Amino acid sequence: MAVCVAVIAKENYPLYIRSTPTENELKFHYMVHTSLDVVDEKISAMGKALVDQRELYLGLLYPTEDYKVYGYVTNSKVKFVMVVDSSNTALRDNEIRSMFRKLHNSYTDVMCNPFYNPGDRIQSRFVCLGRAFDNMVTSMMIPVC
Amino acid sequence: MADAVLFEFLHTEMVAELWAHDPDPGPGGQNMNLSVLESVGFRVGQALGERLPREMLAFREELDVLKFLCKDLWLAIFQKQMDSLRTNHQGTYVLQDNSFPLLLPMAAGLQYLEEAPKFLAFTCGLLRGALCTLGIESVVTASVAALPGCKFQVVIQNS
């Protein structure tokens, strides 16, 4: 299960960032910020390589001693970053991919909401607006233990 | 097939509503109405640009994005593909549709040529919005030589 989930806009500012409240949030914000460099590196590497297919899922960005950070880029250059607890070794690649797919689907739903202005932060202040997105992220962050 | 007709009716009603209050608004009012239609199309295009390429792999270059517009976007909205795509390889693309579904019910030939731009504004905005989500700033204009065929010209803005 994810410990922190972030959605970063094309211009590299956060649209949505949420972490489990037990930890120091600032640490996660910093980790997400540093992971953006790695994401940019991967995107430019993909651009230069003469590979026919370019995947949206970027895979493991970098591991630290406690956490692993995964990344995903959409066609509209919106980045999703997920921080996962290292001790949770049961999480396989497929599960991470499916979590990103759910995140992408929810983000698309938010984008199609006519009350949402693209570029705004995703907040669940108004009833319809970020509530579904929030709930989806909550379901991904329920602690295992 | 009922889905296609629903959008056509909605679009016709949108255009009719904007011109209902003042059938001859003069150039200022006319531009205002066209801008309104174009902005509505822009927002819809932004949402579609996010939703439609979801299962596709990342686009490698501009031409891929334009091809996506001509095939997948047009197919999703108008149930047909764009008839031709031309480019001068310097940032200008001309997309040609020989029987544009929103113009088909109007006329065939030169009748109502002056009214045609009203029915193209929304689609211009749609193209611009989809391009914007996919990372390309552009200016989209439309021209009609003879109904129901029309051409959309996309000029990429390089900063």
Question: Can you walk me through this structure?
Answer:
The complex is a heterodimer of chains A (145) and B (159). With 145 residues, chain A is of the alpha+beta class. Chain A has one domain (2-140): Beta-Lactamase (2-Layer Sandwich). Helix content of chain A is 38%, strand content 23%. Chain A is built from 3 helices and 5 strands, in the order ββαβββαα. Chain A has a 5-stranded antiparallel β-sheet, sandwiched between helices. In chain A, strand 1 and strand 2 (14-19) form a beta hairpin. In chain A, helix 2 runs antiparallel to helix 3 (131-141). Chain A is globular. Chain A starts with a strand and ends with a helix. Chain B has 159 residues and is α+β, with helices and mostly antiparallel strands. Chain B has one domain: Trafficking protein particle complex subunit 3 (Muramoyl-pentapeptide Carboxypeptidase, domain 2). In chain B, 50% of the residues lie in helices and 14% in strands. Chain B has helices at residues 2-20, 26-51, 62-78, 116-133; strands at residues 84-87, 92-97, 138-143, 150-156. A 4-stranded antiparallel β-sheet of chain B has the order 1-2-4-3, with helices on one face. In chain B, strand 1 and strand 2 form a beta hairpin. The longest helix of chain B has 26 residues, at 26-51. Chain B starts with a helix and ends with a strand. At the A-B interface, helix 2 of A face helix 2 of B. Chain A: Belongs to the TRAPP small subunits family. Sedlin subfamily. Chain A: InterPro entries: Longin-like_dom_sf, Sedlin, TRAPPC2L. Chain A: Keywords: Cytoplasm, Endoplasmic reticulum, ER-Golgi transport, Golgi apparatus, Transport. Chain A: This is Trafficking protein particle complex subunit 2-like protein. Chain A: It is found in: Cytoplasm, Perinuclear region; Endoplasmic reticulum; Golgi apparatus.
